[in-house]
Amino acid sequence: MKHVTENKKTSLFIVLAGIFITNALLAELIGVKIFSIEKTFNIEPAQLSLFTDFKLDFNLTAGAIIWPIVFISTDIINEYFGKKGVQKVTYITIGLIAYSFFVLYLSTHISPSDYWLNINDSDASGAPFNIDYAYSRIFSQGQSIIIASLTAFLIGQLLDVYIFHAIRKATGEKWLWLRATGSTLVSQLVDSFVVLFIAFYLLAGDHKWSIEQLLSIGIINYIYKFSVALILTPLLYVAHHFIDSYLGKEAAETMIEEANTKEY
Q: Other C-beta atoms within 10 Å of 53: how many?
């Protein structure tokens, strides 16, 4: 019986880690595209003015679409596997993301085949098209963006873990939504501003943004993350239900207790 439970615990960790790593990596890769929430849903632009006269709409990186899933995965792993579990997945993910950026860097600097260029030398309307240039533009992210993203990710994850357990220590087993949502909202707040500060102020050289721009765009990003985190909160209870059913109520309660005392 114990062997079966250990197998289930291992399988659960692999699945949760897979969801976490996949979404974190995808968010980094698709993050080069900026999309408009207003245009996507055919509504009027927000045109918000915060700290400056510059009007801001809800234009976000495509990675923001799935980033809340990373934080939800963090909270679930936190609940069942504790700080050690989250830290393990976080460090593995950072290593894999760094490796992925390195491979992408290499792929954009190898010489393209003439055959590949020729068969893709025009778009659907017949206009000239340089696929190698497009490939490089999509997959080549600046060093400052990569450093900022990985730093913000690490800080956000470690902060999420700390706040999650601080709230649980104060409230006990009840109020899953409070410790999960509270930790996510605080960690995403920090994440939203750290990545902008490093990429577009600290390492931006002569092209750095003003503090007012950083605050304005950071707030817009956070409003989106804040809203999505609240909307997705019920998923925590859905996940909790299925995991408890999979492990068995007694085994699940034991894991949660170990996660918060022995830091499994």
A: 6
What total number of domains does the chain contain?
Answer: 1
Domain that holds residue 22: 2-261
Per the CB < 8 A criterion, the answer to whether 154 and 191 are in contact is no
Chain segment 124-171, per-residue pLDDT in tens: 899 999 999 999 888 877 667 788 888 888 898 888 888 888 888 887
Tokens matching residue 109: 């600097």
Unique residue bearing structure tokens 């234009």:
59
Secondary structure (DSSP) of 46-108: --EE-SSS-EE--EEEGGGGTHHHHHHHHHHHHHHHHHHHHHHHHHHHHHHHHHHHHHHHHHH
| Long-range pairs for 22-27: beta carbons < 8 A, 24 or more residues apart | 23/66, 23/67, 23/69, 23/70, 23/73, 24/70, 24/93, 24/97, 24/153, 25/93, 25/96, 25/97, 25/100, 26/63, 26/66, 27/63, 27/64, 27/65, 27/66, 27/67, 27/70
Pairing of strands 48-49, 59-61: unpaired
Q: Which of 228, 163, 157, 167 is nearest to 194 (CA)?
A: 157
- 242-262 pLDDT tens trace: 999 998 888 888 888 887 776
Q: Can you tell me the distance from the alpha carbon of 221 to that of 188, in angstroms, rounded to the nearest whole number?
A: 9
